Amino acid sequence: MKKTSELKDKILDYFLAHGQLTAAEASQLRLEVDFVKLEQALVKAQNLTEEDITKAKAVIR
């Protein structure tokens, strides 16, 4: 669970640093417990693609 939480935080920090999320949006998304739902929320609300998320995961790992 800790690794999932850390990965989630790193992904949100990545998009925050690249200007694709605001601090308020990132804060709200940090509350999402389920990682798959987090990815879906990013795609839906932020116009990010699955490719964007995969790229972020590759960069932060």
Structure, briefly:
The chain has 61 residues and is mainly alpha-helical. The protein has helices spanning 2-17, 23-30, 35-46, 50-60. The protein has one domain.
Structural commentary:
There is one protein chain. This protein is mainly α and 61 residues long. The protein has one domain. Helix content is 77%, strand content 0%. The protein contains four helices and no strands. The chain has helices at residues 2-17, 23-30, 35-46, 50-60. It starts with a helix and ends with a helix. 13% of the residues are buried.
Notable traits:
single chain, 61 residues, mainly alpha
| Quaternary organisation of the protein chains | single chain
Relative helix content:
over 70%
Distance between the termini: 16 Å
Structural class: mainly alpha
C-alpha geometry:
globular
Beta-strand percent range: under 5%
Question: Over the alpha carbons, how many angstroms does the gyration radius reach?
Answer: 10 Å
The H/E string reads HHHH
